[in-house]
Specification:
Layout: E1 4-6, E2 9-15, E3 18-30, E4 36-46, E5 59-70, H1 71-77, H2 104-127, H3 135-148, H4 160-170, H5 175-189, H6 193-204, H7 209-212, H8 215-230, H9 247-270, H10 282-310, H11 313-320, E6 351-354, H12 366-376, E7 382-385, E8 397-403, E9 410-414, E10 419-423, E11 428-432, E12 437-440, H13 451-454, H14 483-486, H15 491-503, H16 506-519, H17 527-531, H18 537-546, H19 553-561, H20 563-568, H21 571-574, H22 580-599, H23 611-616, H24 621-633, H25 640-652, H26 655-662, H27 671-685, H28 699-707, H29 713-729, H30 731-739, H31 742-752, H32 760-769, H33 771-802, H34 811-819, E13 825-827, E14 832-837, E15 856-857, E16 865-871, E17 879-883, E18 893-901, E19 909-915, E20 922-927, E21 935-943, E22 951-952, E23 954-960, H35 965-993, H36 1001-1019, H37 1023-1045, H38 1055-1065, H39 1076-1091, H40 1129-1153, H41 1159-1178, H42 1182-1197, H43 1201-1221, H44 1226-1243, H45 1251-1269, H46 1274-1283, H47 1291-1330, H48 1335-1349, H49 1366-1369, H50 1403-1406, H51 1409-1425, E24 1446-1451, E25 1454-1459, H52 1460-1468, E26 1474-1476, H53 1477-1484, H54 1488-1498, ...
Parallel strand pairs: 25-29
Antiparallel strand pairs: 1-2, 2-3, 3-4, 4-5, 6-12, 7-8, 7-11, 8-9, 9-10, 13-23, 14-16, 15-22, 16-21, 17-20, 17-23, 18-19, 18-21, 24-25, 26-28, 27-28, 30-32, 31-32
């Protein structure tokens, strides 16, 4: 199942050590499908590594996940929430305010008292307005607080007058009244979270509450909110630096958050079970729900907008610009060919190219181009990289520095890396000097080789499938879009645009509505109609043109960042990543009008040249507005009416104000500017409207100026005056200063200036007093952000459950900021705070200037040099690299050690030690640290060549940026995993109850995966976030489902196995596309395609593995390459299921068809059908093809021995028939080859199985008959090459090898004969010189020469025989007539199954002299060849001639193809007219069967002989047939070779093989039992078994000799038996020593009863069994058989 069952509940794993349990049913509602849904609280618990409950629990945090679940999901996952009938127990309706021990009458009296006290308190509060509160009022409030702490009276305090009372008390200037109001609120909020939230919501919705609350009252309410939300969203953002948000903004965020949560509760309550409380019509309920959804979406959008501004994400996005993610499958790994560094869908609009230098495409070869670049390139020229090379990518530009004769020869300063790198000539494209470069607008005009890198070519999307994939992704197919819908905005887009329309005030709002009415036929637009409008795209574009001029700065920033504007906004503005130009255009009329109102005349156009003016010039028109403000402030005592318009303008466009404050962080040399800025800021603090400016956003600049040791004392004093006045005017900014660490900074400033800084101590005390409030603000910021994240996750869950679009404005914006940083890295100075060195600190900056020519040089003794890095909080080092140069010689480091510690005094943890090679330029010191070290110290222990001081060229640090992405990824994956695991459990329950529901699984999975794919494409900004979501979905939904549907039930059949069986059964009927079987098969295929979609056919190479640099850029330290991952559990379970299905199919086929005459063709057809089905279901994946083969092998292994032997014989016979049939040629021969190939594919499964031994036995026999009967052909070698692994002993291969050896011997024999002839001729020449001529001598020489030339070769030999004498060798030298051509085959009995080896041929009695001499000479040649090393074949061998072989005889005009026996018989009839069969038997020594087999074809209608039966002559008489008796062919070839004789597995030979197998099994088990649990090594076991088989005494020699041909035993036979025993479970392997075998179970091993192998026999065969008795002797390596007999009794 999906989760683990504990205490009748399912424990759902959420991560390492994390599990979720269903805890409580919270509420109930009716879902969008009309079925009830229940909100369940799941507790998230962290448990010990042992995973057990109870005492093993090591940590239990109050963390939970709220999840809406259906009836089926609760039934499958939450058993304790079901009653006895299986129905869900609804949420308990607890009575609000249980009376407890209070009587109803007493409770009524107390309620009356509370109402009268409320009236009295309101009257007393009005009477003491503006005076000191009297004691009776305080006593009244104190009594009310006491009543409020009584829970049964909570309902009375919900009176609206209570809220009025609290509002008046909170806004009172008297501290005691405000304190009493806080006590009363705390008493009311002490009961439950619902009451607390209701009070906060009610108070926050009061009009202008911020104006009535002072700092303490606001903090009291914020503390109450923090207490209310602390347990709801326990989310930690440790290591992430949250911005300093003042209390005013925090309170606004709290109001928005409470409003959103209230609307969300109303939405859930509106969907509650209808009936009891709500009797409205369905139309009214639907309209109310639609109104709430719109209101909730607008409120959520407002909350996100304000939160983004408070977190200062909007300014970061305006600088970076939105990035789009490529649309690719989130459930598959990215293609290895895709360069992750290139933007996926965005291309550069223009490129740069040279006006005078030629590109590489104009040259015929790379060498020519390299020579051209080498000749034309000059120092200082700009170049571009044409291809990727180590650390430089294609398209990178740089400046050429120098070249030399090294490899690579060219040094370029690259802009992408900020340092030099050596490359090759042909890799560069010359751009030239700046005056030689031009911009090309159209990228298509450029055809250089660097276009792919320089332009950032768009990568293929998910609509394109790589060639390694067979099927398209089922769920990412785009849905059919309605043409009418494509012309209108979607509801989500319209609601996002409607959000900005609702932001407009008064006239602007009416103008926009007027535009809508004009384009919508004048329809009256109310809120209900506005929400449901279908807005055309043209109208939306008009609205987007009209809105920017009517929005303020912050809302305009939201508009430019939203999706609807990026999609439909003006193209000229949509291309811009930021919006200053639009703001400047908007500000010009406002600035002019405001200035005119201030001055009453024309605005000033000229300003004095001051540092302030130069600072404001970069801000555009808003900057000029600020200069006007400064002029107004400098004109004596400005009136508030004069300054107010400028302050309002700054509130709308605060950029000049922020620029002014951030100038304080500039170098201390800007003292006049700093004093001017502080003077302006001091004056601004006095205006109440100025306190609404975003002071907190630039407060870090003030802190930088305060901390700087170079700050002038006068500037520092003015800064303290300003901060003191600002903190006094608004204590919120004192809290901000506390968060920024102002207390320590002020203390250091006082120490430096000896306490002579006015108001510094007062400011420090003021900041210190806000410590508690700073902690509260940090907690509130965390709680609000965590609450928003939880609400976002809840909306994603509803989106998954209902499949309805998410219509919340800025939802994608919020997700983009949360996922931001998933692929971002921090480099160098962003990772550390400061760098310290052991000596020469004035040169420490050279380590980080990115200039390879500069360096830091130490000064000191050997081993005392170090570099200390003070890391930023939370930065984990991904890579720390040291830059060195070989040219530094003895100054170059040779050994570097890196230490880490928590402080400078605790640097005692060695992180790495590196030896630096003299040729290195980049030395990687650290990689992928998993712990944060505050201080890292690099110690140079030794230099090259014994140098003392060292030189370091640079230091590079790469680390992950601390962003919200890790936190959000954890929450997103946790919620996603829980949702889909619960759903997977419910679906699995449905499938377990009814297997037919498995047919609907593909559509269910399709919908879920398409939902996640669309969500990722719509909302997630980068591939890492999308891949994380896709992986979690797949692991939580698909993996458990596959595990469940592939797990067998009580009957041993899994649901998916049953479905695949049904698919195979109806496969033939599915060819009709209109049939039900076709629809059924389509569903099954869609399901299997979907399940294997995540696994590519071939795993792409790891994209993280960097290439090894070469040449000068080589470093000594390299990380190991990433290894390929193992197959996933999904594929493993699917392959196991498919294997079981195939095994059952094959076993059923073998059981029913093994006796058929056409068994092999049917089996091949069945296997081919299974193979096609595997390809249809799973594609060309190696895992499933292997499962198919293993399934077929499993079916074969289930066969009893004699059945398996029969099957193997049938396959060997079928192959033999197809090989012989292919010799026919033509169409019939080609058909035979096709059938042979299909059979060979099936036979390959025998490899490694026990059946391979018997298959080799029969194949060897039939192959020998083919080779000796009709000769060898290319097809024999081709067949063996394909099915070679099916022969354990490799006997067929040795047979072909022996034929090759025979051919080589035949060639050598031919040379030997020529040598013999040359020697004889030489002797004749010598004799002729000695003798005095004569005609007789000449005639004799001619006869000998003729006889010698007529020599040929011999026949087949196989046994040992002594060499013949010279007289016999020369018998055929004087043969008259043409000598026959004879070829001798030397056959080794070790690999050739010579059935007639006992029938040896005696050439002296059975062959004519002209053949006998050739055979004798070959015997002498073979005997002599044994002494030559070139033909050394082991021990000395002799030949024995056999009757095996074939011959061609001339009979009239016919050529007879006969065997050796037939040749002898026909040649014998040349001398006799007739011969009896009895005399032939006596002369040849052959068996009657063998002779009858040879006589049969000769006496057939095609043969030349007649067999006549005569009385008194057994067997008859043979004579040559008279030509007139019977017509027969007169010309051509006549094949009379006896036909192939096929064996039967049921005969004595097959039973002997079975007996040998069982004897070996008994012997193996006996030996393993003798060695007990220690067991034997497999090699040792094989040797002992063979030794016992050959020498005895166990098994007995008589029993072994009775096996006939089965008495031979090899190591392959023993290994085959070991595999059989392993499969039966009798023998086991050791887990820690897999090569050691031991006895497993001390039980009798018995094969089941089998049906009779002989169709003609009656009844079943007796059981084939062997018994193993207890071993009592241990004195010998294997148990002696003298004590007990341990072998089987056989039939």
């Amino acid at each position: 199942m999906v989760g683990e069952l504990r205490y009748r509940e399912f424990r759902v794993p959420l991560g390492p050590g994390l599990h979720a349990y269903p805890d409580e049913l919270i509420r109930q509602r009716v879902g969008h499908d009309g079925h009830p849904e229940y909100q369940i609280r799941w507790l998230v618990l962290r448990r010990g590594e042992d995973g057990e409950g109870g005492s093993s629990q090591v940590d239990c945090k109050a963390e939970h996940i709220l999840l809406w679940m259906s009836n089926d999901e609760i039934y499958a996952n939450c058993h304790k929430m079901l009653d006895e009938d299986g129905q869900v127990i609804g949420p308990s309706q607890e009575i609000a305010g249980d009376a407890g021990a209070l009587d109803k009458s007493v409770l009524g009296e107390m309620e009356t008292d509370v109402k009268s006290l409320i009236q009295r308190a309101l009257r007393q509060l009005e009477e003491c307005a503006g005076t000191i509160p009297p004691a009776p009022l305080l006593h009244t409030v104190h009594v009310l607080s006491a009543y409020a702490s009584i829970e049964p009276l909570t309902g009375v305090f919900k009176d609206p007058r209570v809220l009025d009372l609290l509002m008046h008390m909170l806004s009172s200037p008297d501290y005691q009244i405000r304190w009493s109001a806080g006590r009363m609120i705390q008493a009311l909020a002490s009961h439950d979270a619902g009451t607390r939230t209701q009070i906060l919501l009610s108070l926050s919705q009061q009009e202008a509450i911020e104006k009535h609350l002072d700092f303490d009252s606001r903090c009291a309410l914020l503390a109450l909110f923090a207490q209310a939300t602390l347990s709801e969203h326990p989310m930690s953002f440790e290591g992430i630096q949250l911005p300093q948000v003042p209390g005013r903004l925090l309170f606004s965020l709290v109001k928005r958050y409470l409003h959103v949560t209230s609307l969300l509760d109303q939405l859930n309550d509106s969907a509650a079970e209808p009936g009891a409380q709500n009797n409205s019509a369905p139309e009214e309920l639907s309209g109310e729900r639609d109104r709430l959804e719109l209101e909730f979406s607008m409120a959520m959008g407002t909350l996100i907008s304000e939160l983004v501004q408070a977190m200062r994400w909007d300014w970061a996005s305006s600088r970076q610009g939105p990035s789009a993610r490529s649309s690719c499958s989130i459930f598959q790994p990215q293609l290895a060919e895709a360069n992750p560094g290139l933007p996926p869908t965005r291309a550069q609009p223009s490129i740069r190219r040279s006006r005078r230098f030629r590109p590489r495409t104009e040259f015929a070869s790379g060498n020519t181009y390299a020579l051209y670049v080498r000749e034309m390139l000059q120092a200082g020229m700009r170049v571009r990289m044409l291809e990727d090379y180590e650390e430089v990518s294609a398209g990178d530009e740089g400046e050429f520095r120098q070249s030399n004769s090294g490899v690579p020869p060219v040094q370029v300063l690259w802009e992408s890396t900020g340092r030099t790198y050596w490359v090759h000539w042909h890799m560069l494209e010359i751009l030239g000097f700046e005056e030689d470069i031009e911009d090309v607008v159209e990228a298509d005009e450029y055809h250089g080789a660097a276009v792919s890198g320089a332009l950032g070519v768009a990568l293929p999307t998910w609509r394109w499938k790589p060639m390694t994939e067979l099927y398209a992704v089922p769920y990412v197919l785009p849905e059919d879009e309605d043409a009418e819908e494509s012309e209108h905005l979607s509801q989500a887009e319209w609601w996002e645009l409607l959000f900005f329309i609702k932001k407009l005030d008064g006239p602007d709002h009416q103008e926009v509505l007027q535009i809508l009415q004009e384009n919508l036929d004048g329809e009256v637009l109310d809120d209900e109609i506005l929400a449901e409008l279908a807005v055309p795209i043209e109208l939306a574009q008009d609205l987007l043109l009209a809105l920017p001029q009517r929005l303020d700065d912050s809302t305009l920033r939201d508009l430019l960042n939203c999706r609807v504007y990026r999609k439909y906004g003006p193209e000229a503005l949509a291309r811009q990543p930021a919006y200053p130009t639009l703001l400047e255009a908007q500000a010009q009329p406002q600035e002019s009008a405001g200035a005119a109102r201030v001055e009453g005349k024309e605005p000033p156009t000229q300003y004095p040249d001051t540092p302030l003016r130069r600072l404001m010039e970069g801000c555009g028109p808003p900057g000029r507005t600020f200069l006007d403000l400064e002029r107004a402030l400098s004109s004596g005592r400005p009136q508030e009416t004069e300054i107010r318009p400028f302050l309002l303008q700054l509130q709308r466009q605060p950029q000049p104000f922020l620029t002014l404050m951030r100038s304080l962080a500039s170098p201390a040399a800007n003292k006049p500017l700093h004093l001017t800025v502080l003077r302006i800021l001091m004056q601004l603090v006095d205006f109440p409207e100025a306190l609404l400016l975003p002071w907190h956003e630039a407060m870090d600049a003030c802190m930088a100026c305060l901390r700087s040791p170079d700050t002038d004392r006068e500037v520092l004093q003015e800064l303290i005056f300003f901060l003191h006045r600002l903190a006094s005017a608004s204590r919120d900014y004192a809290v901000v200063l506390n968060q920024l660490g102002a207390r320590d900074a002020i203390s250091k400033a006082l120490e430096k200036h000896l306490g002579k800084l006015e108001l510094a101590q007062e400011l420090r005390d003021m900041v210190f007093k806000c410590e508690k409030h700073a902690h509260l603000y940090r907690k509130l910021t965390t709680n609000i952000l965590g609450g928003c994240i939880q609400m976002v996750l809840g909306q994603i869950e509803d989106h998954r459950r209902t499949h309805r679009p998410i219509n919340i404005p800025f939802f994608d914006v919020f997700l983009r900021y949360l996922c931001q940083g998933s692929s971002v890295e921090v480099k160098e100075d962003k990772c550390w705070e400061k760098v310290e060195v052991s000596s020469n600190p004035h040169r420490a900056s050279k380590l980080t200037d990115r200039n390879p020519k500069t360096y830091w040089e130490s000064s000191g003794s050997t081993g005392s040099h170090y570099i200390t890095l003070h890391m930023r909080q939370g930065v984990l080092i991904r890579q720390l690299t040291l830059l060195v140069a070989g040219e530094d010689s003895s100054y170059m480091p040779a050994r570097v050690v890196v230490f880490g510690g928590d402080s400078a005094s605790s640097l005692n943890t060695q992180l790495n030690s590196v030896n630096v090679m003299p040729s290195a330029s980049r030395v990687i010191l650290l990689e992928n640290l998993n712990r944060f070290w505050p201080i890292i110290q690099i110690r140079i222990k030794r230099c090259q060549q014994g140098g003392i001081d060292t030189r370091i060229r640079g230091l590079e640090v790469l680390g992950p940026k601390p962003t919200f992405w890790p936190v959000f990824r954890e929450q997103l994956c946790r919620h996603t995993r829980l949702f889909y695991m619960v759903r997977a459990q419910a679906w699995s329950q449905d499938i377990a109850e009814d297997r037919r529901s498995l047919l609907h699984l593909s559509s269910r999975l399709n919908g879920a995966l398409r939902q996640e794919q669309n969500f990722a494409d719509r909302f997630l900004p980068d591939d890492e976030a999308a891949q994380a979501l896709g992986k979690t979905c797949w692991e939580a939904l698909v993996s458990p489902l596959v595990q469940n549907i592939t797990s067998p039930d009580e009957d041993g059949i899994s649901p998916l196995g049953w479905l695949l069986d049904q698919y195979l059964e109806c496969r033939e009927a599915a060819h009709n596309p209109q049939s039900r079987a076709a629809a059924f098969s389509s569903r099954v295929r869609r399901l299997t395609h979907l399940l294997v979609h995540v696994e590519p056919c071939e795993a792409p190479p790891s994209a993280m593995a960097a290439p090894r640099p070469k040449g000068r850029n080589r470093s000594h330290d390299w990380s190991s390459l990433a290894t390929r991952g193992l197959p996933s559990s999904i594929v493993r379970n699917l392959t196991r299921c498919w294997r079981a299905v195939v095994e059952e199919q094959v076993n059923s086929f073998l059981t029913s068809r093994w006796r058929d005459d056409d068994f092999v063709p049917r089996y091949c057809e069945h296997f081919h059908s299974l193979q096609k089905s595997s390809s249809e279901l799973f594609g060309p994946r190696a895992a499933f093809l292997l499962a198919l083969h293993n399934g077929c092998a499993g079916g074969l292994l289930k066969l009893p021995f004699l059945k398996a032997a029969h099957v193997s014989e049938q396959f060997a016979r079928h192959i033999d028939q197809r090989i012989q049939g292919s010799r026919i040629g033509g169409a019939r021969g080609m058909e035979m080859l096709v059938q042979l190939q299909r059979c060979l594919e099936t036979v390959l499964i025998f490899s490694g199985l026990e059946i391979a031994t018997t298959f080799e036995h029969y194949y060897q026999h039939y192959m020998a008959d083919r080779l000796l009967g009709v000769g060898s052909s290319w097809l024999e070698g081709a067949v063996l090459e394909q099915i070679g692994p099916c022969f354990p002993n490799r006997l067929p291969q040795q047979m072909l090898r022996s034929l090759s050896t025979s051919e080589e011997l035949q060639r050598q024999f031919h040379v030997y004969q020529l040598q013999q002839l040359d020697q004889e001729l030489l002797k004749l020449d010598d004799t002729e010189k000695k003798m005095q001529g004569g005609p007789e001598a000449s005639d004799k020489e001619h006869e000998e020469e003729k006889a010698e030339e007529a020599e040929g070769a011999g026949a087949a030999v196989a046994a040992d025989v002594a060499g013949e004498d010279e007289e016999e060798e020369d018998e055929d030298l004087y043969y008259e007539g043409a000598m026959p051509e004879v070829a001798v085959l030397v056959l080794s009995p070790r690999c050739w199954p010579i059935a007639s080896i006992r029938h040896t041929l005696n050439p002296r009695t059975c062959l004519p002299s002209y053949l006998r001499g050739t055979l004798n000479r070959y015997s002498n040649f073979y005997s002599k060849s044994q002494s030559y090393p070139a033909l050394d074949m082991g021990p000395h061998r002799r030949l024995q001639w056999t009757w095996l072989g074939r011959a061609e005889l001339q009979f009239g005009d016919q050529t007879l193809h006969v065997s050796t026996v037939q040749m002898w018989l026909l040649l014998y009839l040349n001398e006799l007219k007739a011969v009896s069969v009895e005399s032939l038997l006596a002369l040849s020594g052959l068996s009657p069967d063998m002779l009858d087999q040879a006589i049969g074809p000769l006496t057939s209608s095609r043969g030349p002989l007649d067999l006549q039966e005569q009385k008194g002559i057994p067997g008859g008489v043979l004579k040559i047939r008279d030509a007139s008796e019977e017509p027969r062919p007169r010309r051509g070839n006549v094949w009379l070779i006896p036909p192939q004789t096929y064996l039967k597995a049921e005969d004595e030979e097959g039973r002997n093989l079975e007996k040998r197998r069982n004897l070996l099994n008994c012997l193996i088990v006996r030996m393993l039992k003798a060695h007990g649990d220690e067991g034997l090594h497999i090699d040792q076991l094989v040797c002992r078994v063979l030794d016992a088989w050959q020498k005895g005494p166990c098994p007995p020699r008589g029993l072994v000799s009775s096996l006939g041909r089965g008495s031979a035993c090899s190591s392959t036979d023993v290994l085959s038996c070991i595999l059989h025993l392993l499969g039966q479970g009798t023998v086991r392997r050791h887990d820690d020593r897999p090569h050691t075998l031991s006895y497993a179970v001390p039980v009798t091993v018995m094969e089941p009863h089998t049906e009779s192998l002989n169709p003609g026999s009656s009844g079943p065969n007796p059981p084939l069994t062997f018994h193993t008795l207890q071993i009592r002797s241990r004195g010998v390596p294997y148990a002696s058989c003298s004590g007990t007999q341990s072998f089987s009794t056989f039939r």
